[in-house]
Design goal:
The protein is α+β, with helices and mostly antiparallel strands and about 280 residues long. Helices cover about 35% and strands about 20% of the residues. β3 and β4 form a beta hairpin. α2 runs antiparallel to α3. The radius of gyration is 62 Å and the shape is globular. The relative contact order is 0.10.
Length: about 280
């Protein structure tokens, strides 16, 4: 009976007429006609198969409508929207007038490469000579002698050079070289010196404190000092060390040549050549 119910349930999924037929079969079966039921059941199997086939076919039929639904996708027509003439609005792009964007004119900065100008090595200063061997040649000079204390050394030297310059200016004589100070002796408290200015013309009637003479000559070592007179001690210390290292003997005198005019140049801007005559 359970199997029969299952078959019934499956067949009722077919047509209503088939259900009626099966009901009749069941009634006959209940009237104790099992054999007839079997025959009827056998007869119904092909029918049930056909009905099942129809049912499956009907189940598949719904698929077609689904296919038709894609048609509504026709709203894809909005695609034409992209063609939206608004692209012409891009025409305002005539701001291409900005083509002046050829701001590449900033290329001139590339001209900044011009800093290649540094190849002007001729402008580069060479290192100052230190201990360079030279030969001094004598020059005709106007001379004045003096004595000074180390505490007021620079002021005393400047006063002596001013005296010489005043004489030359008064007689319209131009110096033929740089001013020089020749140290003739030194000690812990001070020194004696000669202030000299090279000239090509002898001044007339100079005062007793001023005379004519010649500057030192011969072999010497050249050193350069830059900066104030007060810092000269550092330069002379380096010179002394250099002479000791080279085991050189110097005379008891040394010369300072003022490359910058000490009467017109700030003290910390002085450039002075120091000459140490050798024995």
């Amino acid at each position: 009976m359970a199997m029969a119910r299952q078959m019934l349930a499956e067949v009722t999924r077919g047509t209503p007429s088939m259900a009626r037929m099966l009901n009749e079969v069941m009634e006959k079966y209940l009237m104790n006609r099992p054999r007839s039921f079997r025959l009827a059941l056998v007869a119904l199997v092909p029918v049930a198969a056909v009905s099942l086939g129809i049912a499956t076919a009907l189940a598949q039929s719904p698929a077609p409508p689904a296919a038709s639904t894609p048609a509504p996708a026709s709203p894809a027509i909005p695609a034409p929207a992209p063609s939206a003439s608004p692209t012409p609005s891009a025409s305002p792009a005539p701001s291409a007038s900005q083509t002046p964007s050829p701001s590449p004119t900033p290329a001139p900065p590339a001209t900044a490469a011009t800093p290649a100008a540094p190849p002007a090595p001729g402008l580069v200063q060479k290192a100052d000579p230190f201990g360079e061997e030279i030969t001094l040649t004598p020059k005709i000079v106007v001379v004045t002698k003096g004595t000074a204390n180390w505490d007021t050394a620079f002021d005393t030297l400047i006063d002596s050079l001013k005296t010489l310059s005043a004489l030359l200016d008064k007689q319209g004589i131009k110096p033929s070289g740089n001013s020089m100070i020749v140290y003739t002796s030194t000690d812990d408290t001070g020194f004696t010196y000669l202030a000299e200015i090279p000239v090509e013309q002898e001044p007339k009637n100079p005062p007793k404190a001023i005379s004519m003479g010649k500057s030192p000559d011969g072999k010497a070592l050249k050193f350069v000092h830059r900066g104030s007179y007060e810092n000269m001690d550092n330069t002379y210390e380096a010179i002394t060390n250099h002479l000791d290292d080279k085991k050189l003997e110097a005379k008891d005198t040394f010369i300072e040549e003022y490359i910058t005019d000490p009467l017109k140049t700030a003290e910390d801007k002085l450039v002075i050549n120091v000459y140490v005559p050798l024995k």
